[in-house]
Every structure is written in structure tokens, then in C-alpha cells.
Amino acid sequence: MKRWLVLVLIPGWLLGGSVGLRTLIEHAQSHHGDIIAKDLSLHARAKSIEAQQSAYWPTLDIGASYSHVTPSTIVSPKETISGFLSASVDLYDGGRKAARLRAKELAWERAGYEKRALQKKCHTADHTPLLHPEKTTGNAA
């Protein structure tokens, strides 16, 4: 077991150089799970805004049907083909679409503020005792 450990650590130490504590802390902060989750939430809210903006576009419906009647008579045709196309747009909805869009935009802004607050909290954590133990002010009793 010790042989494998030496075989793994020595080449890593020789090739990788020294990694400082500050580098490790910055790496941990950039790969923080909560920050990644907030970033994904922010992205999802941006897509939700795009989906809500599509409510302003008109809706198009298209359809077709075909029927074939085996015993045809004089009054009923043997084959019938029909199709339709309809377009609709809401002229007035009482401001519901605009209110929903504004609510989604505010939720997106809130998610951005929460992400920045979490980043600030993680980045401004006091790492002075770890990086510079001589600068700590405390009574060691």
C-alpha cells in the first residue's frame, strides 16, 4: 500500500509543483455546490422568462382529417378530406401577461442577488487564521 502511495504522490509532487493554501481555497470557492446550484437556478429562471415572453405571440392551430366510407350512397361521398388553419391573438388580457412576465423577471433578479450574496459570503469568509497564523489576534490560553 505504501509503495502505491509513493508511486502516486512523488510524480504528482514533481510534476505539479507546490499548491498553496490560497489556491486550494479559491478552487473550493469556485466549485462550491451552493453557488453552482444558484447559477443553475438563475439559468432556469432566465429560460422561464423566455417562455413567458412567448405568450405574446399569436397561436396557430392547423389540422386535417380524412374519412373513407365503404358503402357509399348517392347522398354521402365515399371519401372526405377536410382541413383547417386558425390563428388567434389576445387583444386584451387585463395585464395578466405583463404581470406574469414582470414577476418572472423579479424572480430572476432575486436569484441573481441571492447568488451574489452567497458568493460574497463564501469569498469574504475570514481565512486569515489559515493563511497567516501569525496575524491572528487572540489569547492562546
Write the layout of secondary structure elements.
Blueprint: H1 2-16, H2 21-30, H3 33-53, E1 59-68, E2 79-88, H4 96-123, H5 128-131
Antiparallel strand pairs: 1-2
Helix pairs in contact: 3-4
Describe this structure in words.
The chain is of the alpha+beta class. The chain has a domain at 29-124. The chain is built from five helices and two strands; from the N terminus they run H-H-H-E-E-H-H. Strands 1-2 form a two-stranded antiparallel sheet. Helix 3 (33-53) runs antiparallel to helix 4. The radius of gyration is 32 Å and the shape is elongated.
Label this structure with key terms.
14% strand, two-stranded antiparallel ribbon, 5 helices, alpha+beta, 141 residues, 2 strands
Entry summary:
The protein is about 55% helix and about 15% strand.
Taking pLDDT < 50 over at least 5 consecutive residues as the criterion, the unreliable ranges are none
The largest β sheet comes out as: 2 strands, antiparallel
Looking at the structure, what is the overall shape? elongated
Percentage of residues in helical conformation: 55-70%
Question: Mean pLDDT across all residues, rounded?
Answer: 79
Strand order of the largest sheet: 1-2
Computed CA radius of gyration, to the nearest angstrom: 32 Å
Given the structure, what is the number of helices? 5
Number of strands: 2
SS-based class: alpha+beta
Beta-strand portion reads 5-15%
- Name the helix and strand elements from N-terminus to C-terminus, one letter apiece: HHHEEHH
Distance N to C terminus: 41 Å
